[in-house]
Automatic annotation (TrEMBL):
Name recorded for this polypeptide: ABC transmembrane type-1 domain-containing protein
Annotated transmembrane regions: 18-38, 50-73, 85-105, 143-164
Keywords assigned by UniProt, alphabetized: Cell membrane, Membrane, Transmembrane, Transmembrane helix, Transport
Membrane topology reported for the UniProt record: Multi-pass membrane protein
Chief subcellular location: membrane
Biological process according to GO: transmembrane transport
Cellular localisation: Cell membrane
Coiled-coil zones: none
Length: 251
């Protein structure tokens, strides 16, 4: 993600801001939004129902989108022009063309829709574990929702750290590697990753600390889910010290 945000393409500042918004938004607000999304009749189940019903259409559309985008970019590169694969203008053209072709395929009856039953998954008020095939490593479904929430709110901060690290790598190292005939993956493996090792150590440390300190999400989502399915270390310490309406167990 940081590598993509480090590219010099049009509109990149907007995408950087959009990706970083979850990290600067109140965790309580984000948690309430996620609770609304993971309700039994919430956005997640609605999107899964649409995906089940329109899965073939979506798959064909995405295939056409990627194919047209690559065709446009490769054609421009063969003409000697410098074009990024994520050039916004070509993405818009690809979306329009892919939409038209997909619509024509549906209009001619090549793509047909089937009636499917609405997805009715309990995300919060359940003790069911996922993934079911993981055995002892399976985790409760409400805890999975909290994991998604935590990833969504922390990844943007880590992206900023990696972005700063990428921009701090001297360009002379890449130029010297190109002179020696290094390819893209070789530059990534022998220059980029070693230069980011200190940033990686910092991110791993901050991630562990943040995971151990996670409390507010569990406190809020715990009201909608079985508490034992979402409990974390910080909440366990709090619940042991202040057990409900009982007297504190400290002091």
């Amino acid at each position: 993600l940081a590598v993509a945000m480090n590219q010099k393409i049009k509109g990149i500042r907007f995408f950087r801001t959009a990706y970083y918004m979850p990290s600067v938004t109140s965790s309580i607000v984000i948690t309430l939004i996620f609770m609304w999304m993971f309700q039994r009749k919430g956005v997640i189940n609605y999107l899964l129902t649409l995906l089940r019903q329109h899965g073939l259409t979506i798959g064909i559309f995405l295939t056409l989108l990627v194919g047209i985008q690559l065709l446009l970019v490769v054609t421009e590169k063969l003409r000697g022009r410098t074009v990024e694969y994520l050039e916004p203008s070509y993405i818009i053209i690809s979306i329009i063309l892919a939409s038209i072709i997909t619509y024509l395929l549906k209009d001619f009856g090549i793509i047909t829709l089937t009636e499917v039953k609405a997805v009715d998954i309990l995300w919060l008020n359940t003790r069911e574990k996922v993934p079911f095939w993981a055995g002892p490593f399976a985790f409760p479904r409400p805890l999975g929702a909290i994991m998604i929430l935590n990833i969504w709110t922390t990844v943007p901060t880590f992206m900023i750290l990696y972005l700063a690290g990428l921009q701090g790598i001297p360009k002379v190292l890449y130029e010297a590697a190109e002179v020696d005939g290094a390819k893209g993956w070789q530059k990534l493996w022998y220059i980029t990753i070693p230069q980011l090792k200190h940033i990686t150590f910092l991110i791993v440390t901050l991630g562990l600390i943040g995971t151990l300190q996670m409390f507010d999400q569990v406190k809020i989502i715990g009201s909608q889910a079985p508490l034992e399915s979402v409990i974390t270390l910080a909440y366990y310490v709090y619940d042991s010290a202040f057990p409900g309406a009982s007297a504190p167990r400290i002091g």
